[in-house]
Structures are given as C-alpha cells and as structure tokens.
Amino acid sequence: MSKQDHSDNVPKVLVVNDDPGSLIGMVGLLSQWQEELVFEIISVRSGEEALKQVLLHDFAVILLDVNMPGMNGFEAAEAIHSRKASASIPIIFVTAYLADEMNRLRGYEHGAVDYLFTPIIPQILRAKLSVFVGLARNKIELRNQANTLDKRTQELTAINTLLEGEIGRRKSAEQKNKTTEEFLAMLGHELRNPLSAINGAATLLSLDGISAQQGATAKEIICRQSGQLTRIVDDLLDLSRVMLGKISLTKRSIDFANLVRSCVETLTIAGRTQNHIVKVTADSVYVDADVTRMEQVVTNLMDNALKYTPNGGEIHLDLTASGNDALLSISDSGIGISSELLSRVFDIFTQGERPLDRPQGGLGIGLSLVRQLVMLHDGSVTADSQGRGKGSRFTIRLPQSEDSVMKQVTNVQCPALPSQTILLVEDNEDARAILTMMLSTLGHRILQAADGQCGIEVATAEMPDIALVDIGMPGMSGYEVAQALRANPKTCGIKLIAMTGYGLADDKDRAMKAGFDMHLVKPVNLDVLMTALSQCITDRINEA
Q1: Which CATH number fits domain 421-543: 3.40.50.2300, 3.30.1540.10, 3.40.50.300, 3.40.50.10490?
Q2: pTM of the full structure
Q3: What phi and psi values does residue 348 have, to the nearest 5 degrees?
C-alpha cells in the first residue's frame, strides 16, 4: 500500500486554535492515544486554515476553538457545514468560558455535536474521541469494501463481456462449420448426379448392339449433364471472382426489356417453363450494364422462381421505369419464404429446408451471386414474401442509362471458316482427342502434341496457322511455349490461343504478356472457339 493510500485509510482529527500554547497542549494530549486508537492529527491556527484542510481531507471529528479573532468558531462551523461534502463532519466546540443556554443553542445550530470546557478532562476527551474515530474507521472500511466490490464488479463485467464475445464467436464458427458441411454435402450431391448420368451414357455408348435412337439419347444426356456441371462450376467461380473483386464489367447502354424477354425465351426454348405460366410485362427502359452478367442475374432469379414454384404455378416479370431507375420485379406463386429465412436469403449457401430428395437442387449461391452482380452495377436487389405458401417477389433496381438512344445489338454469326492447319498442345488425352475430332469434322488439318516441348518441335517443323495451347501442362507451361514460339523468327507469326481453366483478369493479362493472341476459359464452347478461330484468320489476312 502506498503512503497516500495508508493516509486515506487512517481517521483524521483536526484541531483548530489560535493560541499557540493551547494548540500545542491539545495536540500533545491527543498524541497519547494516537497509537492506541490509530488516528492522524492535523492542527491549524485559524478558521480560514481549517476550511482549507476540510477541502483536502475527510475528518473523524473537528476540535474547534470558539473564541478566535477574524473568523470565530461559530462562523467556521457554519462555513464547514454549508459545504455538502463536509456537512456531516462532527464538530466539538472547545471554549474556556462557561457557555450559557443561548450560546449552546447557537453552537448546536451551527452543527456542533458537543462542547468541551477548559481545562479539559483527559478521560472525557478520550471517550469522545474514541467514539468518533471508531465511527470514522467503520466509514472508511465500508468505503473500501464498496470500492473493492465496485472493482470486482467491473472485473466480472469485463470477464462476462469477454465470455459473451467468445460465445458469440463460437456460435458463429459453429454456424459457419455447419454451413460449410451442408454446402460440401450439397456440392457432392449436385456433382454426383450429372457425373452419374454422364458415366452411364458413356458406358451405354461403349456397348455393342445399341440402337441409333439409344445412341442419340445417350449423347443428349451427356451434353445436357455436361452443361449442368459447367453451370455449377461457373457459379462457384463467378461468385468467388465477384467477392474477391476480380470481375470486371463491360457496360453499354441496353434495352433492359429486350434482355428480359431474351432470358425468358431462352428458358422457354430449353423447356424449363413448360410446366408454369410465365407472363412478361416490360416497358422499354435503358440501363448501362454488362449484357452477359445481367443475363446471368435475370436467369438466376427466373431459375429460383421456377425451382420453388410447383407445376401449374404462375411467374410474373414486370419491368417499369421508376423515377431515374429501372425496376424489375419477378414474382411467383410458389412456396414462399419464411420470415427467418427472408433476412438472410441473399447470404452465401443459404437455402430453405433440405429434404433428402432435394427436388429443387442447387448450391444456394445463385441469389448471393445475383446480389453481388447487381451491386457491381450500382443497383440493389430485395426479397419479399408474406410467408410459407404465399409466393415471393424479388425486385431489382438499376439506374437508368443517360444515353436514351437505342443501340442495335446484332448477333455475330461465325462464317464458314477456310481449312486451317491447327496445332493442339494439350496434355489431357481425352480433351485432345475430342478437340481433334470436332475440328477435323469441320474440315481443318489437326496436329497434336502432348506436352510443351513436343508442341514447339511440331510447330517448328509443320508451321501451323493456329496453335491452341493448354496453359497448365507439366514440365513446360503454356506460357513458356508461347514465349519460345514468339522468340523464334520462324514461328513468331503463328496465331496463339490459350486454353485454360484459369479465368481471372490477371490470368488473361499474363497470357497476353506471354505472347498469346487470345485467352479462352475451359470448357470452351464450340461457338466461342469458332469465333476465336475466325478472328485469328481475319487478323492473319489483315496482317498479310
């Protein structure tokens, strides 16, 4: 305990007397009991000095001389008790004169608890002093106990706050673990179904004696299920790119109504809407948007409505201008959304109840991807439902385009390509075989290489028009192949197209820096590949 703390825990007695001899005598008398009763003595010679000490300390009792020049004892007592902090300090007046009843009354009115007349009888002074010092010591102990309890309360409050925080973090971690486990289970389910169908169809095609119709059906199954797998992977990659800020938009002014109708038409042609009543009401509204990404948004919301609306149900798409915004509402008569789920329906991996048969399917990332893409377009998306069995409505709000002039969008048709010599540098034997058969069927001469070094040797010997080069190959990567071909004067004019599973903007930049003319992300759609080959041929003609 510090000296200051010790002093604060010892009762104090203030002696006030203007006569030096009387003051010394009183202090000496009190000192006899100081060790026994444990208190501290402070002495002053005027009422003004007494007031200063009262401002600094709390006293067990004040022994106050009545007859002092300047401020007398009564005036000093009145001043001491007029201050709230010192109003309860007991004061014993000390006087050499026998006070009459009026003087005693005046003293008590000013806060005196007793009178002592000189010469003072020591036993009486000790008895009175013992009482007041004891009361002060109890007061100090109570104060210390209160301080200790307050400190302990603060410590317990801090500990409780830490515990509540830890409980919250653990609950959050448990929820994340549960969500991750459920997502992995869903992912396994969603991947195994199409893989099982593809595997069964491939096995059927390998059997002898199957009919032409059976073969055609098997091929349709493979195409359809491969498309499903591609959509799953694309959704996962797109959401990852958006959340990491790795997606860039190519915006232009578009008629939002045409885009909405096109999305519905695509789903209708694919047979997705045949069991539902779909109605579209769309005013011509222009927005600045990336066409591909906005089609993804509308299709995902339509897919969600179709998924959760029973056969025979209705889905309405309403597009209107609202102030400076375009407002697209997609409502359905489906199973609706519970209030508990509504608040987190756009969270990643969130879905409703997951029965074992999972008739709706999906990974629970479609709506999260919708929100991220809409936000990239400076818009917002909200969900609304009156509850289970009462349908749901999703509303997209996008700023209207400042350019009100309609821009005609024409579909690029890939012309029939003249026969080319194309080199495939691909370490995956199945992928290489499929591409060879596809391009050969279209009339092109195909050269093959199973690794980078072999690709360089074939290119140097055969001088192909175009080389399709895989990036992720063992030994020598596609980047190194491109750099080697560009460094050789004989092969530097070959058109190089990178084919890779890495589709971030940084991957494309790296491919361009390595010397590639184009960058295609696997799986490569035939139309996309044909467009790329056509562009390479056009560039070769223009460069000639």
Answers
A1: 3.40.50.2300
A2: 0.42
A3: -65, 140
